[in-house]
Amino acid sequence: MKLENVDLKQPFVETEYIKNIAKRAMLYLNTGYAIHFKGPSGTGKTSLAMYIAKRMDKPYQIIFGNEEFGRTDLIGGNFGVTKKIVQDNYVHSVMKHQIDYNQKWIDGRLLNACKTGATLIYDEFTRSRAEANNVLLSILEEGVVEVPLNREKTRFVKVHPDFRIIFTSNPEEYSGIYKAQDALKSRMITIDLDFPDVDTELEIVLKNTEVDKRTAQYIVDVVRNFRESSSSKFHPTIRSSIMIANIMKMNKINLSKDKELEIKIFEDILLSESSNSQVSLEEKKKAKVLLEQITYN
Ligand SMILES: Nc1ncnc2c1ncn2[C@@H]1O[C@H](COP(=O)(O)OP(=O)(O)OP(=O)(O)O)[C@@H](O)[C@H]1O
């Protein structure tokens, strides 16, 4: 299981658009419901989830959905088989291998958050299989965690009243995404996120890079024009704008000084996002022509 302590040192942009979403999310969480940010890659779901988790004023953790996840990764399990080499008391040249099966139960992040009343972000939860995520049903519905003791026995742990969970997910048509079970979806409030408004996108680029405002505005305009007017296969994310801005700033590339290089940078970044792996060569060529038109305007 990949887990990280959340790093909230990253600058966070709070425009009216974001404030509105955050306000609703906090209302639902404060009432005791689980929330779910769903939307295309790079629309700011994880950043928003982290920001909200921090505002809950409770300890918070993040786990990342993964198709290899099992119940043990979320709840915990018995770990620790130790192997000892022991010297025989009588015949010193004889060594005995002793395997110690004294296993110890270790709580998984989900169980730990349920016990301690922490806020848990389950990022991209639909990358995990339904068999792993099923454990969430009783947590969200009955407020209990089913913890298997052995093959026959299960114990039930009561969920702390302060426990909260924030889910994020990408649309189902993305590769590596499982359909979330209806039973699970009906136990959370889903807020659909799309690309933010132009002011928010511009602020995000400015906060994440040290590029000047004129350059940031130009990059955001080109990226948004391309996103909105190209075939549906190309949806460059805010990440692309941040990358282009960083490249321009760090390499002291001035706008319009070397138009050819500028267009190539846009092409390389905007056409290489992972969601474009299915795009044919022909479509890429058309996209390049379009990009050239946008950057010359
Ligand atoms: N409100 C914000 N303030 C500052 N930076 C932001 C904000 N929203 C998004 N970003 C930046 O935009 C980029 C994409 O955001 P993020 O990773 O949160 O999107 P996502 O929707 O979770 O993407 P994915 O689905 O691919 O994981 C990141 O570099 C992030 O730092």
UniProtKB/TrEMBL annotation:
Instruction: State the Gene Ontology terms under molecular function.
Output: ATP binding; ATP hydrolysis activity
Main localization of the protein? cytoplasm
- Tell me the superkingdom of the source: Bacteria
Pfam families referenced in this protein's UniProt entry, alphabetically: AAA_5
Can you quote a single GO CC term? gas vesicle
* Keywords linked to the UniProt accession: ATP-binding, Cytoplasm, Gas vesicle, Hydrolase, Nucleotide-binding
Which GO terms fall under biological process for this protein?
Answer: gas vesicle organization
Query: Is Hydrolase a UniProt keyword of this protein?
Result: yes
Q: Where does the record place it?
A: Cytoplasm; Gas vesicle
Q: Which residues form the AAA+ ATPase domain?
A: 31-199
Report the catalytic activity.
ATP + H2O = ADP + phosphate + H(+)
Which family is it part of? Belongs to the CbbQ/NirQ/NorQ/GpvN family.
Q: What protein name does the entry list?
A: Gas vesicle protein GvpN
